[in-house]
Amino acid sequence: MVEHDVKNLSLAPEGRLKIEWAEQSMPVLRQVRERFTREQPLKGIRLGACLHVTTETAVLMLTLKAGGAQLALCASNPLSTQDDTAAALVREFEIPVFAHKGEDNERYYRHLSAVLTTRPQVTMDDGADLISQIHGARKELAGDVIGGTEETTTGVIRLRAMEREGVLAFPVIAVNDADTKHLFDNRYGTGQSTIDGIMRATNILLAGRTVVVAGYGMCGRGVAARAKGLGAHVIVTEVEPMRALEAVMDGFQVMPMTKAAAHGDIFVTVTGNTSVMSSDHFGQLKDGAILCNSGHFNVEIDLETLGAMARGRRNVRPFVEEYTLDRGQRVYVLGEGRLINLAAADPREWQRAVEAFHDELERAEMLELPFVVIHPGSHRGEGVEAGVARIARALDTVLQRTRGYRVMVLLENTAGGGATIGRSFEELAALLGAVAQPERVGVCLDTCHLFAAGYDVRTLEGYESTMEACARLIGLRRVRAFHLNDAKAPLGSGLDRHEKIGAGAMGTAAFRLFMRDRRFARVPMALETPKEPEPKADRDALALLRRLRG
């Protein structure tokens, strides 16, 4: 059995049934899994995930496994784990899982460490905990990481702060920014499941009560709309003027929390910020006020201060803790201030996870693309051996300075007819063999370059023979793309220069085969279209290489 730390493996049959039930509402992932099974786009990739261990996440894990990924999963929140689902992933599907519902901080971080011990090449985060560990206690792992994905608003906020400070060591895709994520996950999913969690934890009627929603981002919009739909009077607190105006135009009262605190019966924080409810507000609360949070971390309600202000505390229901304050008013905190939509509800209601997880998968595939593109130029006048050594030295410097980003080497014939490094796959193999970290280097080959080197890709037969030569000499996974002048219109004006040697007449069938070949990622190269501005990544990389050449 695979390595694991789950609460009770005997729950696996029950968990499997729940996974199958969730899968019925996730047709997009089922379709993706069919494609992944055929194409194996993640074959051999070590993928570490820190996500909510729920049935929907289980369907995502099964899809990633079908695509060839080597997985390890831990929980991104101590209260969100479904123990039967975790058991099923281990026993029924042989996926390493490290998660207990209700785990303490010590076990939580031990589980993070267990996933990081697998030395992931791709990370999937919901809150940026894996990435934070890699940048903190486990810095030695950063060089292995191709990139990561981050699903939630709070995690993206953390990562953008790291990016501004110049400390983010590898590229991370903000899945949370995807439009489908905002709609299916944040607005509709979190909106419904937050209300569901409140009602399950408290068994109260919302109609006629005043619900205060702190934050009017996508999650706040969803919570407010669903509370209103159930008959609640809704007040919104929001510091961003345009969002506050939008809330007014949507029919809600808008006021600061210092004023709303005295009016609310139920308070929901969904801001991604800290201390949204603090000592300034607790003293104003009504007797019986209910506080809960649907932001990722349990920092939006200042529970430490609330605890210090309370003269008594007790648990009155599952997920409900009562604080008695000095004036005698009772305040109820749900789910320890953690995500109430996961702690007390069936998480991610309806099909909201479908498009969000599809976004995760597409971005996991995208992480096979390079981050930096460099153009070594010709070796005319210096010889192949000297050229290989020079470019290998330049590559080593680029790899060192780019802190773990993948590097793409663009190899092509120069317009002036100069000899280019890599006129054969043997030369490419020599170049990669001379680099200190060849596993981080990808190669982009020009169709003209291949044709000049004797590899004719104009026909289906020529294409297949070229693939065989590539696989034999430098390995398919080393080549990220074939460089077409204009991948959108390969037989257009952009191939005029290539038509002189016949590459522009490449057969349509061969080209279509290449475009469907999932062993390679297509990388558009603006370096071939001088009339258009170069992408910043290309421009910066070229400037760096010119400085290295001296």
Concise description?
This protein is α/β, with parallel strands linked by helices.
What does the secondary structure layout of this molecule look like, with pairings?
Elements: E1 5-6, H1 12-24, H2 27-39, E2 46-51, H3 55-66, E3 70-75, H4 83-91, E4 97-99, H5 105-116, E5 122-125, H6 129-135, E6 147-150, H7 153-164, E7 172-174, H8 179-202, E8 210-214, H9 218-229, E9 233-237, H10 241-249, E10 253-254, H11 257-260, E11 266-269, H12 279-282, E12 289-293, H13 303-309, E13 310-317, E14 320-325, E15 330-334, H14 340-343, H15 352-366, E16 372-374, H16 384-401, E17 407-411, H17 425-433, E18 441-446, H18 447-452, H19 460-473, E19 479-483, H20 496-499, H21 508-516, H22 536-549
Parallel strand pairs: 1-4, 2-3, 2-5, 3-4, 5-6, 6-7, 8-9, 8-11, 9-10, 11-12, 12-15, 16-17, 17-18, 18-19
Antiparallel strand pairs: 13-14, 14-15
Helix pairs in contact: 1-3, 1-4, 2-3, 2-15, 3-15, 8-9, 8-15, 16-17, 19-21
